[in-house]
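Quick review question:
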């Protein structure tokens, strides 16, 4: 029996056991209770505060300052080699190349573990939690935001959704879903049984968010 036929047989068994039972009815949710952030709130300010509380360093700036600020983030961290997402501008790549070795090709595995930083865009950001939503695709690789010690994330103001409900709704409207979606809320963290929190054990020790807004 193939894997596909095994799955089909399993689902058929479940359906048979359910019989004609009515499907469960989800309780009605009150928007004023469940939704803490409204779409007409100041999403930029909410995201900035939440991301800072989560441990990110957030810098609000106009687009013209992006190359300089990306290079500055690498210099401050002492990064010598960085992955730059192919979708970013040549100006950013040149700025990175002035302070570190640039890697732009689609790469995974050991190459990423040998780098000090990754500079990526994001698919979305979430105002309520300060989270970054990164997806796999032609302009990024799965490990870019998860492996190097420093993640420099470029967020545009118009990419900020009010909360996870809005972010998931936006993804669900797409004709094709990405193979991989990562939600990042601050630097990598882990805790032992005693609750001692340690940062950067299995992912970036620092997340630098460059928040591009029309007002700078």
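Suggested answer, residue by residue:
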């Amino acid at each position: 029996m193939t894997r596909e036929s095994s799955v089909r047989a399993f689902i058929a068994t479940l359906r048979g056991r359910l019989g004609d039972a009515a499907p469960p009815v989800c309780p009605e949710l009150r928007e004023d209770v469940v939704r803490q952030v409204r779409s007409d709130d100041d999403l930029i300010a909410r995201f900035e505060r939440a991301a800072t509380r989560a441990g990110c360093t957030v810098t609000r700036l106009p687009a013209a300052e992006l190359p300089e600020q990306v290079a500055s983030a690498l210099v401050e961290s002492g990064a010598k080699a960085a992955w730059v997402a192919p979708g970013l501008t040549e100006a950013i790549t040149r700025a990175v190349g002035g302070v570190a070795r640039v890697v732009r090709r689609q790469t995974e595995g050991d190459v990423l573990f040998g780098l000090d930083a990754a500079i990526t865009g994001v698919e979305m950001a979430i105002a309520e939690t300060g989270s970054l939503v990164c997806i796999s695709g032609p302009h990024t690789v799965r490990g870019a935001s998860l492996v190097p010690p420093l993640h420099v994330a470029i967020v545009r103001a118009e990419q900020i959704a009010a909360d996870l409900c809005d972010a998931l709704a936006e993804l669900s409207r797409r004709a094709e879903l990405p193979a991989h979606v990562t939600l990042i809320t601050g630097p990598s963290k882990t805790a032992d049984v005693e609750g001692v929190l340690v940062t950067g054990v299995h992912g970036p020790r620092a997340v630098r968010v460059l928040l591009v807004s029309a007002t700078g």
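Why it works: The mean pLDDT is 88. Residues 40-212 form a domain with the Rossmann fold fold (CATH 3.40.50.10420).
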